[in-house]
Amino acid sequence: MNLALYELAAEFRQTAELLADMDLDEDTIRDTIEAAAFPVEQKAVQVAAFVRNLEATAEQIKQAEKQMADRRKAMEARAASVREYLMHNMRACGFTKIEHPMFKIAIRQNPESVVIEDERQIPADYLRQPETPPPVPDKTLMKKAMQDGYEIPGAKLTRTLRLEIK
Questions:
Q1: How far apart are CA 84 and CA 78, in angstroms?
Q2: Mind spelling out the 3-state secondary structure of the chain?
Q3: CA separation (Å) from 32 to 3, 13, 43, 127?
Q4: What is the Cα–Cα distance from 17 to 10, expressed in whole angstroms?
Q5: CB of 152 within 8 A of CB of 145?
Q6: How far apart are CA 20 and CA 29, in angstroms?
Q7: What are residue 74's phi and psi, to 5 degrees?
Q8: What's the rounded Cα separation, in Å, for the pair 6 and 117?
Q9: Which pLDDT tens digits describe the chain residue by residue (166 residues)?
Q10: Distance of CA 100 to CAs 29, 56, 77, Å?
């Protein structure tokens, strides 16, 4: 029978509790605990392998996303280059418009835009001041202070658990 890890863990706890109530010698208790622990350990290894598999798949997806983004950027750059090539050659021929059943190609003027030649010469009236970011707690400084015995209202030191699979 293929039990879930939580079921095996419950059986193990139940066995340990029963053994604690029985009057048995140490060797018998140790052997029984080891025998009860074996399926839990096997299932834990299977679950850890599944975790590793999920993490590896996530990493592969992350790499595929990066490759796709790089490919998209290359395609966009290529499209911009070919668009510029087309416009250059249309202008060289004196064409401003080409009509075709699939699409219409036309050279148009963009709206006016500002080009900054020397930012240092721009008067202050034409400069935007960015909003200052709100203050953020410095957790590193707070941790050091609390480890040194200081109490900080609204904060506490805590230690959590993590599962390490090597």
A1: 10
A2: CCCCHHHHHHHHHHHHHHHHHCCCCHHHHHHHHHHHHHHHHHHHHHHHHHHHHHHHHHHHHHHHHHHHHHHHHHHHHHHHHHHHHHHHHHHHHCCCEEECCCCEEECCCCCCCCCCCCHHHCCHHHCCCCCCCCCCCCHHHHHHHHHCCCCCCCCCCCCCCCCCCC
A3: 19, 12, 18, 78
A4: 11
A5: yes
A6: 8
A7: -65, -40
A8: 68
A9: 688 888 888 888 888 888 777 877 788 778 888 888 888 888 899 999 999 999 999 999 999 999 999 999 999 999 999 999 999 999 999 999 999 999 999 999 999 999 999 999 999 999 998 999 999 999 999 999 999 999 999 999 999 988 787 8
A10: 88, 50, 25
Residue 151, token pair as written in the block: 């109490």
The encoded tokens of residue 70 equal 């790089």
